[in-house]
Design a protein that fits this description.
Number of strands: 6
Oligomer: single chain
Largest sheet: 6 strands, antiparallel
Number of domains: 2
Helix content: 40-55%
CATH class of the largest domain: Mainly Beta
Shape: rod-shaped
CATH superfamily of the largest domain: Transcriptional Coactivator Pc4, Chain A
Structural class: alpha+beta
Distance between the termini: 87 Å
Strand order of the largest sheet: 1-2-3-4-5-6
Strand content: 25-35%
Order of helices and strands: HHHEEEEEEHH
CATH topology of the largest domain: Transcriptional Co-activator pc4, Chain A
Radius of gyration: 30 Å
């Protein structure tokens, strides 16, 4: 097969592959579509083998792209975690997740360290904070922390009434 013919076949097969749903199309269908488009018989063993090579090369390249993308996503996810600590997209330390929507984070705002207990929502794959929540300065957190035993005592008292 001459190089001009093989180039035409290759270009046509690649064009078809790029426009098809790769989960539904078969090599036979691709070969038939290319054959119709080119007006060539591609069932000849040499041409059939050539089409198979073009398809396999294309699929291998697509798989490599998928794997590279997955690697980048994994690296980004790993980048959010440093050691055993987890960080959000803004670099704030996630102390704990209270539920899938709520979490406690340590953040820096205008030079002050804040403890934030806040609700989050998903938008385009990113977790973003809502206005629902509270941010406490280090002093406010210390006061709150000192009073946790009193809060726990009040909770137990209310629960025992039920």
């Amino acid at each position: 097969m001459d190089s001009e013919t093989s180039n035409k076949i290759s270009e046509t097969v690649l064009e078809i592959l790029k426009s098809c749903n790769l989960d539904e199309v078969t090599e036979l269908k691709i070969r038939k579509m290319a054959s119709e488009k080119l007006g060539l018989d591609l069932s000849d063993p040499t041409r059939k083998k050539f089409v198979r090579q073009v398809v396999e090369k294309f699929l291998a390249e697509e798989q490599a792209k998928v794997e590279a993308t997955e690697e980048v996503v994994e690296e980004e996810e790993e980048g959010k975690k440093k050691g055993d600590k987890e960080y959000d997209d803004d670099g704030d330390l996630i102390v704990c997740r209270l539920s899938h929507k709520r979490r406690v984070t340590i953040t820096e705002f205008r030079g002050k360290t804040l403890v934030s207990i806040r609700e989050y929502y998903n938008k385009e794959g990113k977790e973003l904070p809502t206005a629902k929540g509270i941010s406490l300065t280090a002093e406010q957190w210390a006061t709150f922390k000192k009073n946790i035993p009193g809060v726990e005592k009040a909770i137990k008292k209310l629960e025992s009434r039920s």
